[in-house]
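Z., the sequence and structure:
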Amino acid sequence: MQGAHIFVLLLFNMKETEEIFSVLKKNGKKENLEGMARFGIRFDEAYGCNIPLLRNLAKSYRKNHELALELWKTGIHEARIMAFLIDDPAKVSEAQAERWLKDVKSWDICDGLCSNLLDKTPFAYQKAVEWTKRDKEFEKRAGFVMMAVLAVHDKRQPDETFIEFLEIIYRNSTDERNFVKKAVNWALRQIGKRNRILHGYAVRTAEQILEKAGKTSKWIANDALRELRSEKTKEVIMRREKSLMR
């Protein structure tokens, strides 16, 4: 009976996969592919579907772990976006997270995977730290993207966790690779906008980074300080703190 159940499940996923690809093929546009290329999005195979379409399509397949695995295996750009939009974080293993991350070839898949799925897994904080120690560009980027999105999404985590993240950000602020340095900057800014305490720590971290030699560290620090010292950021922090007091 168990074998029959698995067979039926595979057939069901096949039907859903065909439904999804029918929509992707119908709505793909050449101009979208050209736009992706202009924004530095790498892909081996893609249809050229926009993100709003994919998010709307994903609503019908939420928490379908088996289907997500099948979609990811295709290697098609939009199918992989659908995969991380519909997967169930409670069913994602560390092994799966590592396999998927090693497949990443583009910043949008890296960021989407982290911010829509992996940041909701029980091992999110562990991987955030672990991945910053990696040599490969997108694996290392993923660590800092995780820090950035966790700072926004997880309201209950204590400040101490993010203070430790700032120490890692400081140590990695000389990495000149484009997708790494932008993620380091992003994490620094998002942590600094979390609350007034972390804002102070983030500003001090940025000031310390500014003292380092090299264009990369100075760009990271100056860009972060410009946002962290702005009136808009101060207003954002005040609104967040008021909402937590309600």
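Residues 2-27 form the longest helix (26 residues). The radius of gyration is 20 Å.

Let me know what you think.
H.
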